[in-house]
Amino acid sequence: MIRTLNVVLVITSIAALVGVYALKYSVGETASEKTAIEHQIDRQEADLSLLKADWAFLNQPANVAPIVTRHVAELNLQILAQDQFGRFDTLPMRMKAPDMNALDGLFESLDAGVDPIQQLITESE
Amino acid sequence: MAALAEGGAPIALDGSRKARRSLTKARIRWVIAALILVFGAVSARLVQLGLVEQDNTIEGQTRDLITATRPPILDRNGLELAVDIRVPSLFAEPRRIIDVEEAAQAIHSVLPDINIDWLRQRLTGDKGFVWIKRELTPALQERIMQLGIPGLDFVTESKRFYPGGSESSHILGAVNIDNQGIAGMEKEMDDESVALLQSLGLARGNELEPVNLSIDLRVQHVMHEVLTDALSRYRAIAAAGVMMDVKTGEIISLVSLPDFDPNNPVTALEKDRFNRITSGIYELGSTFKTVTLAGALNSGKVRITDSFDARFGVRFGRFTIDDFHGKHRILTVPEIYKYSSNIGAIKVMQALGKDDFRAFLSTLGFDKPAPLELPERRRPTVPAKFSEIVAATASFGHGLSVSPLHMLRAMAAFVNDGNMVTATLYKRSVEEARKDYVQVVTPQTSEEMRYLMRLNALEGSGTRMNKFAAGYRAGGKTGTAEKVVKGRYASGVNFNVFASAFPLDNPRYAMVILVDEPKAENAQSGATSGWNAGEATGRIVQQVAPMLGISPDFSEVLDQQLVPTQLR
Hints:
The complex is a heterodimer.
Chain A: H1 2-59, H2 61-70, H3 72-75, H4 100-111, H5 116-124
Chain B: H1 2-5, H2 16-51, E1 57-58, E2 61-62, H3 63-67, E3 73-74, E4 80-92, H4 100-110, H5 116-123, E5 130-133, H6 138-147, E6 152-161, H7 169-172, E7 174-175, E8 181-183, H8 184-199, E9 211-212, H9 217-233, E10 238-245, E11 251-257, H10 288-299, E12 307-309, E13 314-316, E14 319-321, E15 330-332, H11 333-338, H12 342-352, H13 354-363, H14 388-395, H15 404-415, E16 419-420, H16 430-435, E17 438-439, H17 443-458, H18 463-468, E18 475-485, E19 488-502, E20 509-516, H19 529-547, H20 556-562
Parallel strand pairs in B: 3-9
Antiparallel strand pairs in B: 1-2, 3-4, 4-5, 4-6, 7-8, 10-11, 10-20, 12-15, 13-14, 16-17, 18-19, 19-20
């Protein structure tokens, strides 16, 4: 009777021993995994902070302005003059009925191969 | 038992069973003793381990403090003015370094700017922690890792980065290598709360709420650009400018040139790099006539329709004060302002009374440093009591020095229906600002001042400004003060100011621009304020007004409405 009990106890303790060691090792493994992930997060946060700083730098007027100046000649950029502003109330109201004669004239000139927009541009120059 | 009773020597004869039992007892005792020893040793070790103090400090500072972050600083629209980047810093544990010479050579091969003798000395010894180099790049970190030297390791530190470079330097200030603010808003934020958070170890990671400043980075950029251009265009030694929202007191932009690069804070210590707007005090010259006239009109002792005799200079003992561009006739109040008549200003001040004039300056806060969050501020020098002659010179801005920020605040009050507001660098709503409005002049005086300022832009010394800022209803006053060189006013060495506000039909922004020692741009131009500070103001308004949502309007009725009814 006592013998069986002893055998059972020995087996349980061996099992417990194995179990505890297994747990210990798995905890150790999880811990190192955690540190690895933390390291990775740290790294990525550092990278992210650099990228954010990069973006902030590229997005600054101080950084954009020289690029604009570089392309002034090519793109014909100019500082907006005060008389170039318009308002909605200076726009003429839409006409009650379409102006048939003007439309006919427009279509005729289109048929004749005249580009009305280009014409406006040349007139204003 | 019978033997004992008989008094003879006891003879004990243990049986073999008894002998075994006592042997067992002895063994048990030994085992107990051994167990006590073992467990005693274990618990002693536990106690010892418990008593060991973990050294968390790195050369006297806690690790938390070193890795502490600062909140990002954003402008009013959310553009970054200052951000934290996480960078590796290299440290060594000398007691774990096996071969000092090898380690020193290896580090030197990656970081050649470190003195190798210093490095050897640093790595020798029994210390637990020494910095080798702080704030490296990730690429360098990788290369040092590959060296595979034991006893070297990295801490991730937070480094402050200012993407705009020098553009907002005087607002932001700078931080030292331990990420503590040493100037500007960075210092102010530390004094307020960040330092506490950092010392508690709470300021880690990116969890700090960003701080929104009142600055508009686009306006800041334009002002910086225009003033940099002014420095070279007028060959001036310094230029500065500040713009404020007159309703909320928010500073929209603040530039002081020459400035410094906050990413390299050492440059801030060079000569003449101080913040001219808040910590410089100047004789602001004729711009001060705005203050004189506002005080006089507000008192009711002078009306906008009054005229003063400006035919002859005003004599004080040996001195005669005369006009720069003398008209030498009877001048109306608007004419005094328009022609910037010193004589007229004195007469107006005398009509007000010198003590009332002095009291008005106190009302405007010209006795104490102008309130603002920046730690760099200076006390103005305004005589506590005015004598006749001091009051006379003060009426056109000489003999007393205030900071441009003082002037800005007063200008803002004059156009904002007389409500003076405290300047701030934090974002603020009109409702909040309204709570600390102080009525310094009446709304009627404010209207008259707006008319005078606009008149000066249309017909007076502000016409050059108005040429650039046409359509934006800007107006203001020039000031050309001769600088004191070796104790005397030197002619030809000027300090020029332009104090303005726009749009005057519904004032939103006030601005003060100053240019120190400008020269004439070319042979046809002058060196007085309208030619440099005025033009710079105009250029800024022209570019900035559309950004701030002010559209140009050329209708003359707007200017006519500014004219007080008595003068129509």
